[in-house]
Design goal:
CATH topology of the largest domain: BirA Bifunctional Protein, domain 2
CATH superfamily of the largest domain: Bira Bifunctional Protein, Domain 2
CATH class of the largest domain: Alpha Beta
Largest sheet: 8 strands, mixed
Low-confidence stretches: none
Shape: elongated
CATH architecture of the largest domain: 2-Layer Sandwich
Bound molecules: adenosine monophosphate
Strand order of the largest sheet: 1-5-6-11-10-9-7-8
Number of domains: 2
Distance between the termini: 48 Å
Mean pLDDT: 93
Helix content: 25-40%
Length: 450
């Protein structure tokens, strides 16, 4: 490997065909649940102005301070003096789009979903990549604990559809309003006066820039000091407490089991009230498969009018890892049904037409249209793991026949050329044909708005 001249960049990977089976299956589950709940798809650009992420997510969050993947503009329009960054997540871009396209004019809440790559220039390690894929939901325009419960239910259902919910535990917390947190942060800073030197260096810095991050610090020294520190729930207003109590009541009504976690804060600045994450039961906070929360001031921070919202993002690579760990196999639809082998110019011409007809009927067909011997073509059919092979040599062309070979049973028989297709269809079964037709009628285009 190491003597290859080029390899995929550090922290990235090729999504190879086997993993695409998982990607496709996960996307289907996401689209299905999203449509059921009235969500519509949005794809914001993969890069945005750097300032959008700095303002929205927060200057002193890990994602912006350490991990933002900035875009070099060498050779681009030199009048453009803005800085750009690849999206580290979807929410900031979608809220920018909500404002830009005046989505406040639409019936609220506006429910949007996205699926695609995100980028964080982090140190790569297991479950942590520089390019990874997320599916993402946003519910914008209303604030009500029942919406939080509905979003959590939808994400719960998707993880159950993918058969990994049994390995996960839903963590939930309420981090109050911005005012609640301001008071708490002041109290936390007070508490640490005189104790700073006992904190690891990184956490000393966090105490300055983003003290809430101390709560989910992985450092043992910090955790020990936190045991006697004031806790966030002591600073929650009655309004926040009531909001949280309603949410838990709704989750109970929906039979969703959760663990209340007073230390869960999530890494990004824009959250308020509800925050939640799905943790691996055995490893806890490390490599969560997804998380989300409410962000009632984000749109205003980005220049829109005050509009509440809540969102969730799931990490596709980590979900695939869990599916594989628990032995969940994504359906393989790439199997080869028929391999067509031929010899001689006449046979080749007939096979070209035959391959096309088989494919049109929804039969996955591979044709060896090269010049190799029949024997080596049959070896190829084996390597493709084809279920059946059709052989057309010079003799068969002359006689108007074709040979059908069952590759599993190893048996073969000759038949009239015209019989080959109906016979194959019978063997595969009408129900298993991979047909695709656009059933939805096309209408006259008129811009329906967003
Ligand atoms: P976050 O909003 O940062 O919690 O990200 C949401 C989800 O995206 C996480 O729970 C992970 O599943 C996934 N994720 C975030 N960062 C990465 C990364 N660097 N590599 C792979 N997956 C990630």
């Amino acid at each position: 490997m190491s003597n290859l001249e080029f390899q995929s960049p550090k922290g990235t990977h090729d999504v190879l065909p086997l993993d695409h089976q998982y990607h496709t299956y996960i996307k289907k589950a996401v689209r299905h649940r999203a449509r059921q709940a009235g969500f519509k798809r949005i794809d914001p650009p993969m890069f945005e102005e750097r300032a959008l992420f700095e303002r929205g997510i927060g200057d002193h969050t890990d994602v912006v301070e350490k991990e933002l993947f900035t875009v070099s503009k060498k050779g681009a329009d030199d009048k453009d003096n803005r800085d750009y960054a690849l999206r580290p997540e979807f929410t900031a871009g979608i809220c920018r789009a909500y404002i830009e396209h005046a989505m406040d004019q639409l019936p609220q809440p506006v429910e949007l979903y996205s699926i695609g790559p995100c980028f964080r220039y982090d140190r790569p390690q297991k479950g942590r990549y520089r390019q990874f894929h997320q599916f993402n939901f946003e519910v914008i325009g209303l604030s009500d604990a029942s919406l939080d419960a509905q979003l959590i239910l939808m994400t719960w259902k998707i993880l159950s559809d993918l058969q990994i919910m049994g390995r996960l535990r839903l963590q939930i917390n309420n981090i109050g309003t911005a005012e609640n947190r301001k008071e708490y942060v002041a109290a936390l800073k007070d508490y640490f006066i005189g104790k700073e030197r006992n904190l690891p260096e990184l956490d000393q810095k966090r105490l300055e820039t983003n003290p809430l991050r101390l709560l989910d610090s992985k450092e043992e020294d910090t955790q020990i000091l936190l045991k006697r520190a004031p806790t966030l729930d002591q600073f929650l207003s009655d309004e926040s407490k009531k909001y949280h109590a309603s949410l838990l009541e709704y989750l109970d009504a929906l039979d969703i089991t959760y663990e209340e976690n007073p230390l869960l804060v999530r890494g990004l600045d824009y959250y308020n009230q509800t925050v939640f994450e799905y943790w691996d039961k055995s490893t806890g906070a490390q490599n969560a498969v997804g998380g989300g929360g409410r962000y009632d001031s984000l749109i205003e921070t980005l220049g829109g009018k005050s509009t509440p919202g809540i969102g969730f993002a799931g990490g596709i690579e980590r979900i695939i890892w869990h599916m594989k760990e628990s032995g969940v196999e994504a359906p393989n639809k790439d199997q080869v049904d028929v391999f067509v082998a031929q010899l001689g110019p006449e046979a080749k011409k007939k096979c070209l037409v035959l391959v096309n007809e088989l494919r049109e009927l929804g039969i996955h067909t591979v044709g060896a249209l090269g010049e190799a011997s029949l024997k080596s073509q049959m070896r190829l059919a084996d390597r493709f793991q084809a279920r059946y092979a059709l052989l057309l040599g010079q003799m068969e062309v002359k006689e108007g026949t074709i040979i059908l070979k069952d590759m599993v049973a190893g048996k073969q028989k000759a038949m009239k050329f015209e019989k080959a297709i109906p016979e194959i269809v019978k063997l595969i079964g009408e129900d298993n044909l991979d047909t695709y037709s656009i059933k939805d009628k096309l209408g006259k285009y008129a811009d329906p708005g967003i």
